[in-house]
Specification:
Layout lengths: L8 E7 L14 E2 L2 E2 H11 L4 E6 L3 H4 L9 E4 L7 H10 L7 E6 L7 H14 L3 E6 L2 E2 L3 E4 L3 H5 L10 H4 L4 E5 L12 H13 L2
């Protein structure tokens, strides 16, 4: 299902972290002839998201040129070392007051497809639940959509748990969208994760 791009749902790609468990900058690791981050960004741009914002921090000057010539907005998080919550806030600051919802995408999930993104967006447009998230085989994953109703709470986050702490508050109003996409559970935190990603991709060809 393709949505109208004027539906006022923005995508925020969270790519500011230093990847301490990886020991190197995972956003620029090679994948499918480009980088992991480019794969995430290109899927977001190809979706029905009205606009795409990328939050950078660690080695931003090295990463920015990789994303050139793409229709997106880059914002910098000078406090990226404080954790994921700081990037959520910086991303929200880049949005205008007409944005009705935001889909947070992880910059290290290159297998999440445009189709999965659009399923989440379509589910939100039908329901307008404050939180919409994908579920594969009974387990939730990413990316997750948050409506404007939640923005003030995201802006008040202080712990490094992303926006997961909102799940308890909105329990009963979270829409879980079944997807046939194990990629919602696959992110790249370690060298083993990266090797596993490359093996999975090789098997799919």
């Amino acid at each position: 299902m393709v949505l109208n791009r004027f539906s006022r749902i923005a995508g925020i790609v969270l790519a500011a972290g230093e990847g301490s468990r990886m020991g190197r900058t995972k956003q620029i690791l090679p994948f499918r002839g480009q980088t992991i981050l480019e794969s995430v960004v290109d899927s977001a741009i190809a979706s029905s998201l009205q606009r795409v914002v990328v939050v950078l921090g660690h080695q931003a000057d090295e990463i920015k040129p990789i994303l050139k010539k793409r229709d997106l907005t880059i914002v910098l998080n000078p406090n990226f070392a404080r954790g994921l919550s700081s990037s959520l806030k910086v991303g929200l600051l880049a949005l205008d007051e007409k944005t009705e919802a935001v889909l947070f995408l992880l910059g290290d999930q290159p297998l999440v497809t445009t189709e999965t993104i659009d399923l989440i967006l379509a589910a939100y447009k039908r329901s307008h639940n404050p939180i919409v998230l994908p579920v594969f085989e009974g387990r939730r994953g990413n990316p997750v959509l948050f409506s404007r109703e939640t923005f003030c709470l995201i802006e008040s986050l202080i712990e490094d748990y992303g926006a997961r702490s909102l799940f308890k508050k909105y329990d009963g109003r979270i829409l879980k969208v079944p997807v046939d996409d194990p990629a919602i559970h696959i992110d790249i935190d370690t060298e083993d994760d990266y090797r596993r990603l490359l093996r999975l991709d090789a098997k799919s060809k």
